[in-house]
Amino acid sequence: MEDDLQTCIKQAKDLVDAQNFQKAYEVFNEALKKYPTNSELKDGLRSMQEKVLERISSKPVVSSLSANLRELPGDSVILNVEEERLRRWREATDSDVTQEDFQENSVNGATEALELYKCGEFQRARRLMCSGRESPENNVDTVMRSLYEMTLYKECTYLMTSLPHKKISLSAWMLGAQAAHELGLPTTAEHWTRKVLESDDCNNEERTEALELFMKIRKTRLFSEGDIESSVDIKLTADDRSVVASCKMDTHSVVFREQPVLLSSILDSDYNDTPACSHCAKCLISAEQFFGAKLLKGHKLLKDAVDKFWTNRTPLKCDHCSVDIYCSEKCKLDSWNNYHKLLCPSVSKHTAKLYDICNQFKKAIRVGSSKLEGWWMDSFSPVLLAKLWATILCDTSRDVSTGRGDKEGPSDVDIAISNKKFGSFQICGQGGITKRIPKMYDLMVKIFTDADQGRQYKITPREFNYRYSQINRNIQVFSDPDHPYFEFRKQIDSMPEMQNLRKVLPNSIKETVFTGLFRIQSSLNHSCANNVEIISGTANEAPGIHVISKRPITEGEELLTSYVDTSLNRQQRRGFLYQAYHFWCECPRCLFEGDDSDTCTECRKEAEEEKGFPACGRCHKAWYCSKACQKEAWKKGHKNICIF
Q1: How many whole angstroms from its chain centre is CA 347?
Q2: Host H or E run for residue 548
Q3: Is residue 246 located within the same domain as residue 382?
């Protein structure tokens, strides 16, 4: 076995030295299936992937995507609270048990306890189960299963928290987890399910059952029923998640619509000059702003058309600042209650500084200046990052009035529970952000330390890096699909008498572009041969996105979008994806396209020096040493992606 491992390692290294990266990847991949924990194989694969990147881009931070089995932020805090709830309930229900009950024992304790449970004599039944500790393990399992079937979920959790762990079988852990889930204790349910998954005694069947239960629980924690349209479903596995179609879809169908959980206009100065609602992204431009007062005044036909067809949306300003504007009183109020009351420039000099830096950054982008180095480095706005923390804090402050919060301010529990709103957004490991933009980190710390007493959020370097990466990994650009000019132009084009007016109307316009966090869209996986694409669209009468099918989609088929410009060649696509998202793309296009003419895409044969192999006559993205290789590749799958 050791000789086989060393042979694989040597073969892979030789292929890397020969720059036959695709074949080397295949060798590493097969070897890791046999030896998944071997560090030499892992290091070799990582080194090879970095060598690929050195040919096209700077070296990335190497990190894997978070697995679905990991704890969510704040889970340890919530678990303690749930365990305390169970402890208090256990103590309350035991308060009227007599000393005789404590001493009660029986050779057939489990059998008798089950009869007592059926008769409603719970206290005596519990004592029989907990004092009869020499009862066979399968007796406990039998009682647990019967209790679960009788929907006595609290009694299941009582046994789980009363019996020694060594007396609890894998089956009992599973039943206890299911009971905890039914009782609204999801963190406890996940914790107990992990006991099964981490056990050395867990067989394949038990592991499969435990994984299914864990993913069912995790799905309910990450997504509420209202998040998911009936046309799609979310599937979770230990290491991945996917969005699948719940029904057949024709080409160009709207697969699903979605509104952002959070949004902010981008910083690129070319796309943010048009007024738009700060809360929902509706375009608020007037005809005078769009055409110019001079043109409107001197063109009667245009003026008449504007009066008749232009949709006027009067902007409403924040009562305390002139920075944010809104399309309605509802958006204005929702914005204030959800985050703006903590971020309004009128709140403190630090929040005012945040908006000032954004304006300076826009100007710096326009002139190509680097004077703001250390402040920011992305096109999405730091306001979006601040909104995330402010939303969590405002959520906890609302819970004070409902009894969940602490009048002294949000506790760790309040923060952990409110974090659920953003728990579904995956991250790529991206450390060291605070070192690259230390000034912005310091400002965010001041903003959320300077907040009103009782509404403070501790932003550590780890928290800053995590949230920055969370946004950077999941943001999607969009704009208002109902720009007033679109409907105006539609009306003009439909009227023959307005034909002369078209000469002064623009064919393209500038829009305010927003970045948003979309819970379902962010769960779409990547393929360079994607079957859906994302466009701006209306969702619940507000700007959002539409996910559109590019070809017919079958029921149960996974929906795949593209994270990268698919016009790039394979090497560029893989390099970008590995650098930005930390995975090595093995989609159909990447499998059946090549990098250059020096290597046969099918058999990996090297061409003679200065003599490349001929390319596929249709797509010109694969090269073959012979007709036989070309035909073989065509049968295997190249025909499905040729001229994609």
Answers
A1: 31
A2: strand 542-549
A3: no
Q: Are 326 and 332 in contact (CB under 8 A)?
A: yes
Q: How far apart are CA 257 and CA 227, in angstroms?
A: 10
Burial class (CB in 10 A: 0-12, 13-18, 19+), 166: exposed
Q: What is the pLDDT of residue 123?
A: 82
CA distances from 176 to 123, 183, 196 (A): 19, 11, 11
Q: How many CB atoms within 10 Å of residue 294?
A: 9
Do the domain assignments include residue 113? yes
Answer with the one of 561, 595, 623 that is the final residue of a domain.
561
The verdict on residue 311 lying in a domain is: yes
Residues 6 or more apart whose Cβ sits within 8 Å of residue 149: none
Q: Which pLDDT belongs to residue 192?
A: 95
What angle separates helix 438-449 from helix 461-474, to the nearest 10 degrees?
A: 110
Taking alpha carbons only, the member of 477, 481, 522 closest to residue 381 is 477
Q: Which residue has the tokens 């109902």?
A: 482
* CATH number for the domain that contains residue 159: 1.25.40.10
Measuring CA to CA, how many Å separate 579 from each of 46, 64, 431, 517?
A: 12, 11, 13, 21
pTM above 0.85, yes or no: no
Backbone angles phi and psi of 329, in degrees to 5 = -65, -35
Closest CA to 315 of 369, 359, 279: 279
Q: Please state the rounded mean pLDDT for residues 55-70.
A: 47
Angstrom distance (rounded) from CA 338 to CA 317: 17
Q: What is the mean pLDDT of residues 95-106?
A: 46
Question: 105-109, 191-195, 523-527 — which is least confidently predicted?
Answer: 105-109
Q: Judge whether 273 and 313 are in contact, CB under 8 Å.
A: no
Q: For the chain, what is the domain count?
A: 4
Residue 423's domain comprises 262-478
Which of residues 222, 241, 270 is at a domain's end?
A: 222
229 in Cβ contact with 249 (< 8 Å): no
Separation CA 156–CA 161 (nearest Å): 9
**Tens digit of each residue's pLDDT (9 = 90 or more) over 510-534:** 888 999 999 999 999 999 999 999 9
Tokens of 246: 């719940």
| Cα-based distances in Å from 52 to 13, 111, 334, 590 | 14, 65, 48, 14
